[in-house]
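#structure-requests
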Amino acid sequence: MTLPEHVRVVVIGAGIHGLSTAWHLARELEARGTGDGTDIVILDKTGVGAGPSGIACGVIRNNYFQPAMRELMAHSVEVWESDPESFHYHPIGYLQIGPEVMRADVAQIHREQKAIGYPSELIEGEDDCRTYMESIFSDWQAKNISVVLHEKKGGYAENMSSMHGLRGKSEALGVELHTPVQVTGFGVDGGAVTAVETDRGSISCDQVVIAAGPWVRDFWHMLELPGDIDVLGRDGKVYERPMWTYWCLQEGTLGVDPTFLVDNAGNMPPVVHLDTDAPLLDDMDGSTVSEDLWGIYYKPDFNFGGVQGGAMPWVVEQPTDDVAVDPYGERSTEFTVTEEFERMWTSALAHCQKR
């Protein structure tokens, strides 16, 4: 497919950010009578879901402590619910399970969810939490659990399948997807982007949406934008910080049949997110993995095949410009799942459930 010489909007990136933006924008232009999907093109250097969107767990929840996020996330869940089949969305719910030290914060989240009519159930106290979890999983055995917040909405979407669903929705409205196309620079006039330069030619445009996930750093440099930003601290002082900081999130899939993780009724269970301050012991030799607060999340996975999940991300300490984003994901030689993560995550699964 030949690149257009001009288009109103260029979206860079064919992950969830780019595909969703193109779809919603096409709908909005049409609703206002000011255009349609033919005014939009999406460019990606590799293909649909080639970055985080194609391998991430795909968890959909409204479990955030910041009040400002609550209504936004509730709206996001409604979008997923609008077409579960196309989005390959599983509305199985979400469990946040925590120790006494997190009890007050989780209860606050429940109050805020209740205030906006978002359905969830709060269970408090170790005995009641154990009984509630055993009503879902008869083999539940996690320790030091004092609070459970069960979001009745939410769940997860199959990563690559949902990306192709979004692609289909945007293309049905006239949006064009061009891939592989490598963006090499921008034409700028008077401080505004007027063109996107690629390895297949130049596209003049009115607006650009950069939806490139971890590659945003490179486009920031192309636009010659500042590498540092002033941040106002809680102490009232201003601190200079790098504009971009990379975090690495390790996730993995336990190679079992996804139906291995069914609930007591034989159905797909809610997504499980557990934090606890109980000691984590190696399930093979009994040695100590962690004596600090630790946490994991997990759910069935039909893309890689098994039980998929992860743990806490960690900050990449090296300078931002030295972080090798490419090759990405499983092809990376630097940011891959470690043996330490494998030991921790599988031991954590065994801590939670006897199976």
